[in-house]
Structures are given as structure tokens and as C-alpha cells.
Amino acid sequence: MKSSKANPLLIVLSGPSGVGKDAVLSGIKKRWSSFHYAVTATTRPKRQVERDGVDYHFFSRDEFEEMIKKNELVEWANVYGNLYGVPKQELQQALARGQDVMVKVDVQGAASIKKIAPQAVFIFISPPSMDELRQRLRQRKTESSVDLELRIKAAQDEMKSLSMFDYVVVNQKDSVEQAVSQIESIMIAEKCRVKPRLVKLTKDSG
After folding, report:
1. Pairing state of beta strands 57-58 and 41-42?
2. Collapsing DSSP states into helix, strand and coil, what is residue 13?
3. Is the pLDDT of residue 206 over 60?
4. Is residue 38 part of a domain?
5. In a 10 Å sphere around its CB, with 0-12 CB exposed, 13-18 middle and 19+ buried, how is residue 125 labelled?
6. Helices (H), 38-175
7. Domain limits for position 97
8. Rounded Cα distance, 74 and 2, in Å
9. Dist CA 115 CA 117 (whole Å)
10. Within a 10 A sphere around the Cβ of 98, how many other Cβ atoms?
11. What DSSP state is assigned to residue 201?
12. Per DSSP, what are the bridge partners of residue 125?
């Protein structure tokens, strides 16, 4: 699918931890090479399978806090003791050159972006059930039992934020491609709008 340089879109993918946002985003990247995919900055330790600058920009806490002071992030949040944020400059540059942008954030981050870019397309990726989400988190084996319960509780709270989003896509077990296809349909519909979204990020946002 080709991007429209006249009215580039900012697509915000969000959802609870463990719902499969990374897998969905990976599937989207295989289909749409024309998009700019924003890489989230974090102080979280890098997992063995992750690549710096590809999966995340990994920073020390001091480095991240310096970015906050310099207002270099569109949004940032403290999630389970780790800092996450979206670098502002790469979003601004991509939108300025007419390129569609996709960013993956947690629900807190989506709320922050909505305040400064309400014309973005907000898509919530939902689990088919809380029991299924719990099972996925257990299989991931990256959280302690205490952290797992914290994430389940947070996910229950995040599900209450659905009204903030434009669309909800259920990521069924072993059906990532179905979720990707649904997001593709959303993208096509957005490109066919009679009144296109006019996305702007102000320079002093953050």
C-alpha cells in the first residue's frame, strides 16, 4: 500500500503487555515498507533476542532523563520501573516529508500522544480474554510471579480505556496474520476518507 504524501497518517498501536504488539508490528512491517516505523526509547534491559535501534533504542536512566529535560520525547512514561518514550524528531521529520508513521506504545503513551496529535489513528490491540493474556505472559517467562500479577492488573485497567481509541483489533491465539489484515483494512479505509486526517506535531509538544 502506498502512502499519501499530501496527508500522511500517524498510526498509534497500543494494548496491554503480552497482547502481541511486537508480533503484530512485525507482520505489518513485512507488508508495508513505505511506512516509517518509530522506534521506542527505553531504559529496560535488552532481551537476548532484541536489537538496539531496531526493537528499541536502549538508554541508561541518566541518558533518558536528559532527553526528558531537553524535551526530546513526544511522550514518555514510567512502566513497571522502566522508562519508555517516543523520540520526537524522527516523527516530525517523517511526517514533514509526507511519510506515514506508525508507532507502538503502551496505553499511557497513547493517551499522551492523543493530547498533542488527536488526528492520529489510534488502534487498540486486545487479547481474546484475560485468561489468554495471563497464559501468554506466563509463556513469555520474562516476568516474576509478582510482576506478572502487576501486568494482569494493569491490563484490566487498560481495557477500560477502549473509548479513547478509534479501532479495536483482537489478536487471537496463533492468528497474528488475521490481526495484521484487519489493521490493513483500517489503513485502507483511512486513506479513502472524504475528509482526511490532518496530523501535526507542534515543536513544543512533549
Report:
1. parallel
2. strand
3. no
4. yes
5. buried
6. 61-69, 88-96, 107-116, 130-140, 145-158
7. 10-191
8. 26
9. 6
10. 12
11. -
12. 169
pLDDT score recorded for residue 26: 92
Sequence-ordered list of residues with C-beta below 8 angstroms from that of 27, at least 6 positions apart, any chain? 176, 177, 179, 180
State the pLDDT at residue 143: 62
Domain assignment present for residue 196? The answer is no
pTM for the complete prediction? 0.83
Query: What confidence category does residue 59 fall into, taking pLDDT thresholds of 50, 70 and 90?
Result: very high
**Which residues, in sequence order, are CB contacts of 138 under 8 Å at separation 6+?**
148
Q: Is 181 helix (H, G, I), strand (E, B) or coil?
A: helix
CATH number, domain with residue 43: 3.40.50.300
Question: What's the Rg (C-alpha) of the chain?
Answer: 16
The torsion region of residue 58 among left (phi > 0), alpha (psi -120 to 50) and beta comes to: beta
Cα–Cα nearest to 133, from 176, 173, 178, 93: 173
For the chain, how many structural domains are there in total? 1
User: By the 8 A CB rule, do 102 and 36 touch?
Assistant: yes
DSSP conformation letters of 36-53: EEPPPEE-SPPPTT--BT
The single residue listed with the C-alpha cell 518509530 is 38
137-155: b (≥16 Cβ within 10 Å) or e: beeeeebeeeebeebbebb
**Is the residue at 204 inside a domain?**
no
Inter-residue contact 101 to 35 (CB < 8 Å): yes
